Amino acid sequence: MDLVIARPEGLYCPPGDFYIDPWRPVERAVITHGHGDHARGGSAHYLAAAPGEGILRTRLGRDINLQTLAYGESIEHHGVTVSLHPAGHVLGSAQVRLEYRGEVWVASGDYKVEPDGTCEPFEPVRCHTFITESTFGLPIYRWQPQAQIFAGINEWWRQNQQAGRASVLFCYAFGKAQRILHGIDGSIGPILGHGSMEPLHQVYRDAGVYLPETRYAGDVPKGDPLLRQALILAPPSAGGSTWIRRFGDYSDAFASGWMLLRGTRRRRGVDRGFVLSDHADWPGLLWAIEQTGAERVMVTHGSVNILVRHLRELGLDAQAFETEYGEEDDAPAEPAA
Ligand SMILES: [Zn+2]
Ligand SMILES: [Zn+2]
C-alpha cells in the first residue's frame, strides 16, 4: 500500500487521512517548512516541527491552528505513526516519517546536507520509500564549501567599502538572508535589512541563532555616509526599485544556487553572483538517498527525469512524482523588475 499519493490538493496519506504541504486548503496539513510553495494558508489543522512555529505564525498568521512536535517525537493518527526529522534546509524544516503496518515512508520536503549553523543539520532517516526533492538534480550542480562563499562575500564587501560604495546583496528573505548573516564577518561594517526581512531575523534570534546586529534600511537617511560602508540585504523583488536608489553608488550581487548558471546572473543584471543554495547539490542528493536505504524513490520538483534515470541505473525503483511545488524560495530568476 502506498502511504503517500498525489492528489489535486497535494501529497496525501490515505490511511492517515492528511496531506503533506498541500497547495490547497485541507482539513489536516503536515508542513515541512515555511517557504511559500510548501506552507499555504487556509487549512483547518497544521502539524509542524516545533522550531518552525515562529516562522509559520509570522507567515500564515498568529492564530493558525498549529500543533508542533519536537524533532524525533512521534504521534499516532488513524494508525499511522508520524514523526518529523531535521531537513537542514531552513529553521524548522523537517522530513516527514510515516510508519504504517511495518511500512516506512519518508517525505523529505526541501533539504540540504551541509550543516550551516542556522538550523538543525539534515538527519538521514531509514525507510522503504523516500520522496526526495530534486531542485538541483543535475550532475553540473556541485557546491563549493560555504566558508569559501562567505569569504567571497566578505571580500566583495570590503572592496566596495574601499571604493566608497554600498554593497547590495539580493537574497530570499527567509532562510538565505539569515544564513548569510550568520556566515559573514559582521565586524566589517554596518548591516542593513529590507523591512520584509527584519521580522524573520527576529524569529531566528528568538530561536537562539546568532545573527550580527542589523538595522532597518529605511531608518538610514539618503546620503548618510554610513551607506558607503554598509552591506544591505534585499529581497530580489527590490531590484530596480526606488527603494534601491536611496543607497546612491552601489555594487549589487545575488546569492542563489542558480548563480552557477551564467545566464541567470546576466538576466539578473547584477555585478556579482554568489553560488549559495539551501538545497542539496547532485552529490548531496545521491548521498542522502543512499543513506535512507530506500529501495523505492519518488522524485519531486526539479530536474525529475534526469535523477529518476540515474537512480534506475543504480538499481533503485525510482519514479517521478507529480507535484505543484514551485521554487518561489530559490527560483531561476525572472529578470529583476
Ligand atoms: Zn524551501
Ligand atoms: Zn520547495
UniProtKB/TrEMBL annotation:
Keywords assigned by UniProt, alphabetized: Exonuclease, Hydrolase, Ligase, Nuclease
InterPro entries hit by this protein: MBL (IPR050698), RibonucZ/Hydroxyglut_hydro (IPR036866), Xnuc_lig_assoc (IPR026360)
Gene3D superfamilies registered for this protein in UniProt: Ribonuclease Z/Hydroxyacylglutathione hydrolase-like
Entry annotated with the keyword Zinc: no
EC number, UniProt record: 3.1.-.-
Stored SUPFAM superfamilies: Metallo-hydrolase/oxidoreductase
Gene Ontology molecular function terms on file: exonuclease activity; ligase activity
Root EC class: hydrolase
Highest taxon of source: Bacteria
Name of the protein this chain belongs to: Ligase-associated DNA damage response exonuclease
Originating organism: Phytopseudomonas seleniipraecipitans
